[in-house]
Structures are given as structure tokens and as C-alpha cells.
Write a structure and sequence with these properties.
Layout: H1 2-11, H2 44-56, E1 67-72, E2 77-82, H3 94-107, H4 141-145, E3 173-177, E4 183-190, H5 194-208, H6 243-250
Antiparallel strand pairs: 1-2, 1-4, 3-4
Helix pairs in contact: 1-2, 2-5, 5-6
Length: about 260
């Protein structure tokens, strides 16, 4: 059943991630277009199709609609989308959080090491080896909140072409690697529990075919979420239910917490 949902998303407009057709033509008009490599990444339609299919699957959490953002390797926003019928159908605050998660996963992943935002949780808590990281690289509020609001989540979202910045240290941000293993940027997802966000981001990345990660600090040497609390890269279990078992089922992390 889950496989068929992903297939529907793929049939709904997903092409190979390296296809220049993924790019939106208005990228060239944006401030940071000279450094943008969005042509190698999914465009708004592809992101929306994959994100919507992922959101409709079982992910645990509150079963809420989602925001998703893709940034390129320079941190330039390439696409912003939501899954509901209108921008108000998902938490308004999660639009910027999704962009912040994408920026974080891109900023702290390398060609040989993928770090998800979920991996950063424990290390950034008081006493952790990376405490304070979440206060670095602040969000560009001018880019985050400029209007018109009616364009939020659309092909011409005002964030597209901007460097959003920001560091987020809970689940929902994943680096994007193409079939050759090249790091292209990252995906951020927000709108539910952070644990469900991670699962939805994982499904979205898989549907987009950009999950060829080189290795990570998570379970099985991936950038998956670790609920065991036995490493410096663990993430707390969200108090909603089911996310941990689903993460194990879809290969997004584990092992499940008893």
C-alpha cells in the first residue's frame, strides 16, 4: 500500500533529480540566483507531490498537514510547498521552521557524512558537545516574513531564491544526495510532531530519489533518528505515539523504544 502511494507521487510529476526541468524559471530573478543550483533539485510541483503522498501515509503524530522546503548546497531556497488546501491548513509557523530545517541539514552535512536535524538534538542540549549550535547562523527574518502572504507555499513563494539561514535541532531535516552520491542540498519538513516530521521527510526524500546518503551517525550508519538514547546523536520519543515503530518499518531510524 505504501509503495503504491509513493508510485502515485512519482507518476504525478517526479522526474530524475538531475533533470533541469525540475527548476522553476523564476529562480533567475531572485537575489541569490547567481549562486543557486536549484536546476539539479525538484521544483515546486515535484516537492508538493512527494510531500503530499508522504503526509497521507501512516507516520504517527497528529496526522496534520505539512510544510516542506528544499534548499540547494549554497543554502538558497529552491521550493516551498504545503499539503493542505490552503496555507492556513497547516501551522503557519512551520513554514519558516521547514526552511530552517532544510538549511540545517545542508549546512551540517558533507559529501561523506549526512547529518539530519534529528541527529543534532542530544549534542545541542546543555552539557552536550555542540551546545550553542542552535543559536548560530540565525534566520534571516527579512527573507522569512516578506510578503505577500498569499504566495506562501506557492511556486512564487517569497522565500524562493533567498538564503533563509537558521539552525533547527529536532526531527524533519535531511540532506539530499543524488544517485551518484553528490550532495545537492537538503529538505526540511514541519507541521506535526518532530518525530512524525522526520518520518514524512524520509518518505519524501525517498520518493524524490535523493536518498543515496554516504553514511551517518544514526542507526545502521544512516542519518535516521535514534530513539535508544545510547549515543550522543539521539532524539527523544515524541509523546504522541507510533512514530518510533514507523521509523523502524520504513528504515528511517530505530530501534523502537520498548
Amino acid at each position: 500500500m505504501k509503495k503504491s502511494i509513493v508510485n502515485l507521487a512519482l507518476l504525478g510529476g517526479l522526474a530524475a533529480a538531475s533533470n533541469p526541468a525540475f527548476a522553476d524559471s523564476d529562480h533567475s530573478k531572485k537575489t541569490h540566483s547567481a549562486s543557486s543550483h536549484c536546476a539539479a533539485l525538484p521544483n515546486h510541483a515535484a516537492l508538493k507531490a512527494a510531500l503530499t503522498a508522504a503526509r497521507t501515509a501512516a507516520n504517527g503524530g497528529f496526522d496534520l498537514d505539512m510544510w516542506g522546503t528544499i534548499v540547494d548546497r549554497d543554502g538558497v531556497v529552491c521550493a516551498v510547498a504545503f499539503t493542505g488546501g490552503d496555507r492556513g491548513d497547516q501551522w503557519p509557523g512551520s513554514r519558516v521552521i521547514s526552511a530552517q530545517k532544510a538549511n540545517t541539514a545542508n549546512a551540517f552535512s558533507l559529501p561523506g557524512l549526512a547529518l539530519s536535524t534529528a541527529n543534532l538534538y542530544s549534542a545541542t542540549q546543555p552539557g552536550g558537545s555542540l551546545f550553542g549550535l542552535q543559536f548560530s547562523n540565525p534566520v534571516d527574518t527579512g527573507a522569512a516574513y516578506k510578503g505577500p502572504s498569499k504566495n506562501y507555499g506557492q511556486r512564487n513563494d517569497p522565500l524562493v531564491g533567498e538564503k533563509i539561514g537558521g539552525v533547527n535541532v529536532f526531527g524533519g531535516g535531511l540532506a539530499l544526495y543524488d544517485a551518484s552520491g553528490k550532495l545537492l542540498g537538503a529538505l526540511g519538513v514541519s507541521g506535526d510532531s518532530s518525530c512524525a516530521d522526520h518520518n514524512i521527510a524520509w518518505r519524501t526524500r525517498t520518493a524524490l530519489g535523493l536518498d543515496h546518503i554516504p553514511g551517518g551517525v544514526g542507526p545502521g550508519g544512516t542519518d535516521g533518528i535514534d530513539y535508544e538514547q545510547t549515543s550522543g546523536w539521539a532524539h527523544p520519543l515524541c509523546a504522541v505515539g507510533g512514530e518510533d515503530e514507523i521509523a523502524v518499518e520504513i528504515g528511517a531510524g530505530g530501534p523502537a523504544v520498548p
